[in-house]
Specification:
The protein has 364 residues and is of the alpha/beta class. 40% of the residues lie in helices and 17% in strands. It is built from 13 helices and 14 strands. Bound molecules: pterin-6-yl-methyl-monophosphate.
């Protein structure tokens, strides 16, 4: 499949593009007018070019298939994404970055392990997140920490559903963090308005048909391997290109499975089969992910790569690093931040968003 990543738009109508899936990328590079970059890396064309020049350089058959994704990616790059419709109203992703507060109802999550294993305690914590300004409370009943074992479906349902039910009844908007169809269904029936799946549909073949039927928004995240194995020496030739292409290809596959693009958010999956260097490169490439045309979710809060950079071992002490990444992600166009420290992130993000959208009129 052809994939189009915009790295930068230039003033003269040209753009720095990376195109995956071309039949003869070297021939296309050779046919482009010289403008600086026109090279092939790991089978992908990396070129500074205008859309018309690029379309003129490919075969007529490829022109037909390349033109729609090329125009879509150029239009989407750096533009605010559309809003998301949910059963509980619109999530205004076009207007501002939103905050998803993390509520892990598990005995073993890495950052808040075990604190919320009791339903009443978890429900109270959900209210606290909402009061602090979370637009969504993300309820998860299975740890996705590196090395974690899967949880039986009944256990996950028992953990998640009472919490979602209580929060929904109190008017708190929830999402469900699960890779299992039965859990997604039970949680949505209990009031969850979005399915957040770290597996991109790879762990349970029933999940995507279930999401298609439920009709709620869906977070499509990149993960290499499984939580049990993912941190064993992850390697990429080009992490940004591979994560981007995976998301682009999976978006098309979701559409074929009945999940409209309009319902999907994309997430590079920081910490899921990635080294510190991979995670940092992906945070730095947030803007490029906006060329997928979907709201970008970034989940960096308290993760171990932040500790690796700052030398802070305790996840609970990684607030400053978490806020720094949140601000950088928003500057790069991210529109949903999955975080533990909601009030602090909200303030940091308000500032980052104000800078990103500041456009004084000349002389004003
Ligand atoms: N990270 C975790 C769990 N779920 N979901 C999405 N979409 N993106 C993430 O980065 C993500 C996630 C693991 O972090 P936690 O143990 O603090 O919940």
């Amino acid at each position: 499949m052809l994939t189009v990543r915009v790295r930068q738009r230039l003033g003269d109508g040209a753009a720095h593009l990376v195109i995956g899936g071309l039949q003869r990328p070297e021939a296309v590079a050779a046919a482009l007018p010289a403008r600086g970059v026109a090279a092939v890396h790991h089978g992908r064309l990396d070129a500074v070019t205008r859309a018309e020049e690029l379309l003129a350089a490919v075969t007529s058959a490829e022109r037909t298939t390349l033109a729609p994704p090329l125009r879509r990616a150029l239009a989407a790059f750096a533009a605010p994404p559309p809003d998301l419709d949910t059963p509980a109203g619109v999530l205004p992703t076009s207007a501002r970055p939103l905050i998803m507060g993390v509520l892990n109802v598990t005995p073993d999550s890495f950052s808040d392990g075990g604190r919320y294993a009791r339903t009443d305690v978890a429900v109270r914590a959900g209210h606290t997140l909402a009061a602090a300004g979370a637009d969504l409370v993300d309820v998860g009943g299975e740890s996705t920490r590196p090395g974690a074992d899967p949880v039986p479906v009944e256990v996950e349902v028992e953990r998640v559903v009472p919490v979602v039910t209580a929060l929904a009844a109190a008017g708190v908007r929830t999402s469900v963090d699960t890779s299992k169809a039965a859990v997604a269904r039970a949680a949505v029936e209990a009031g969850a308005v979005l399915v957040n799946d770290v597996s991109a549909g790879a762990f349970d073949p029933e999940l995507l048909p279930c999401v298609a039927e439920l009709g709620v928004p869906y977070v499509l995240m990149h993960l290499r391997g499984t939580p049990r194995s993912m941190q064993r020496d992850p390697r990429y030739l080009d992490v940004v290109a591979e994560v981007f292409d995976h998301l682009a290809i999976r978006l098309a596959e979701l559409e074929a499975a009945g999940i409209a693009r309009e319902r999907v958010l994309v997430d590079p999956g920081l910490g899921f089969g990635k080294t510190t260097a991979h995670n940092l490169a992906l945070v730095g490439a947030t803007r490029e992910l906006t060329s997928l045309g979907r709201p970008v979710l970034i989940g960096a809060s308290r993760k171990s790569f932040l500790g690796a950079v700052t030398g802070v071992d305790d996840p609970g002490d990684r607030l400053e690093a978490s806020l720094a990444v949140a601000a950088l992600a928003v500057a790069g166009g991210a529109r949903l931040l999955r975080v533990h420290d909601v009030a602090e992130t909200r303030r940091a993000v308000a500032l980052a968003h104000a800078v990103a959208t500041a456009r004084p009129t000349p002389g004003g």
